[in-house]
Each structure stands twice: as structure tokens, then as C-alpha cells.
Amino acid sequence: MATPNFHLAKLSSSELSYLDSWDRVAVADRPAVYTTVVGLHGIGFNAAAWTPLLAALPPTLRFVAYNQRSYKGSSPRVEIKEPGGVDAMKIYLNDLLEFIEFVASDLKVPAVPAAAGPGGITVLVRSVLARPFTPNFLAAMGHAFKPDTSEQVFADASDVWLKAYSPGDPDESLLPPSGLKALTGDWGKEAWEPHCLQHGMAWKFSGSNAEVRATTEKALAKVVPGSSGDRLETLPVGVMCGSRTGDYFEDARQVIVEELWAQSGEGRTRKTAQRLVEGTNHFAFIHEPKKFAVALEEIVVEELGAQ
Length: 307
Known about the structure:
Distance between the termini: 32 Å
Order of helices and strands: EEEHEHEHHHHHEEEHEHH
Strand order of the largest sheet: 1-2-4-3-5
Number of helices: 10
Number of strands: 9
Structural class: alpha/beta
Oligomer: single chain
């Protein structure tokens, strides 16, 4: 499985390396209306981690994913100055918003039609860091959160953490590989950047900061004109995970359901959807790319109206 080609998006405040699942598809061969998915990778894994999914995507979905700052081909990392990395989170959030604008303007993706349906852009986030301190997370990562921890020690601890499964699994040998064993071949080697782990952990948890969440919601909400003035329509949110996902990863899903989905103020309605990919874990997009692609299409196109 070959690693896809990467290109360079030159934004106002950064340069981001990105892949495009349609970079070899002639414009004449593309459908007139389709939905574009912007993929955002997790900590330690760059956009090449999406490689197994690309070939499984339906013809109605175009997939564009970028490497965040500090990852291969993109701008250097942001040096953290504020407690909890809130300053870095704001800058990385701005990168995402600028990249979405780049996809819309430079790649010329179709807009959402007047009625809900295919078109527009949706964002797929690899993982969400919310309440980090589950027992499994602390057991694997607690000793690594020290200023003098080497990159290798931090990477090894992260690998242990990523191997978490649901409690009570009768035989883990029957489950698909997790952690670094999930990455195979050249694309797997390309996707793993352990030197980015410590920095990523230092700012990603600030996503739960009230100011960051409010900024995110406002930036991505849809403005709907009305006779009594404009109003904000909340961003639709969907969740996909493997049915054998456990501990921290299950906890993160609960945070989304319990907290993010509940953010629907007066006059606003949030569309939501969930899908489980059976028989796999938090690497569902690697182990079961076809099932994952079906779940993605159902959520983006059917449940969320491709907003």
C-alpha cells in the first residue's frame, strides 16, 4: 500500500503539507456535487495514517487531510507560553479554519446546496482529548509527564496507552492490532512521528478550555439570516468508533455525547449521529476501512446532511 502524494498549502500564517484523495482524478471525471471531508490526524500520527481509508471511500466523498505544524512538511511547532497550552491550541485551531478556507477556495470544492444534501465540507477528527485521566491513561502515561523524559520513553508509554481495550475482553489475541502494531508497510513508517508526541500532549488537552470551546463553536457555527436578525445554527456532530474501543477512548466518546451534544442554545438545534464499526478498536479506519467508510458516508451525508 503506497503512501499518497503530499502537496503544500501556503496559508497566511503557516504552510501545511496535505494529501488529496482526488489529486489523480481529472476534473472532468469528478461528480458535479460531492462532499469534501477534511481529516485531522491524532497525536504522533500524521495524515499518512489515513492511507488505508482512501481506497475505500465512496465516489461521493473527497478526502483532504493535512499534517499539523511540527509534522513532516509543515511549519514548525508553536512554542507554548500559556498554562495548559491554550495559546498553542488557538493557533492550531486557526490553522484548521484557514485550511478549510484553502480547500474551499484553492481546491474549489462545491458548496452546500440550498436544501440539505451532498456538498460542502465536513471535518473528521482522528481522536478527541477531553478528560484524560482515566486509570488506563494514568497507568501508561503518568511517569512520562516529566520535563526530562526522552522522546523514546514518551513514545513507548504512548504505545502502551494506545493498546487499551474494553475491560473483560476474553482474549486480546483475537482482537486486531493496536498501538504501533496497527501501522504496517511504508505508509505506516511514514505516518509515525514520535518526536511530535510530547508537544502534542502539551496542548491538546486545552480543547476542554471554556474559551477554546466557545471560540471553536462560534467559528464553525453556521450563520442563518432571519427576519429578526441573524442567528447561529450549531455545528452538527457525529461520532464513529470501534465496538471494541475502551477506557480513555470510550470516555472521550462519552464526553462528546454528554457535553458537546448538549450545547444547543435557544433557537438552535444540533444534529447528531453515532456509528459503531463492529469487531475493531480505535484503529477502525485502518483495520476495517470499508466499514469505516460506510459509517462515515452515513453520518456525513444522511444523518448530518453534509453541512
